[in-house]
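Reading a protein record of the kind used here takes little practice once its layout is understood. Each number in the token line that follows is a code from a learned vocabulary of backbone shapes. One such record is shown here in full, so that the layout can be seen directly:
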Amino acid sequence: MPRTDQQDKGQQGEDAALAHLGKHGLTLVQRNFRCQGGELDLVMRDGAHLVFVEVRRRQDKRFGGAAASITPAKQRRLVHAAQTYLLRYPRLPPCRFDVVAIEGERIEWLKNVMILQA
């Protein structure tokens, strides 16, 4: 099945995020982990930490920008996917949620940002 233009742009955003994080010493563990009810764009290792990375790409900051597009419902799906992913570990590593927000050509890495809102 051919990929859509939107899927190609999403892939390019993930590629850019992966390269950016790699320059800062993170290593890829898994890409596009999917489970029923959620998906993790990138799972990375940062020292002892397992990092769940959500990649968001927008053309500009209209409507709040890339990071603002992560709704509470999306956050719940990310937490669910991370919990499912962690079932493979007999002993849980320290974990965090990061966001790579891409607006145009600008990349911003936000560490430890996922806080569920009511």
Residues 64 and 89 are 36 Å apart (CA to CA).
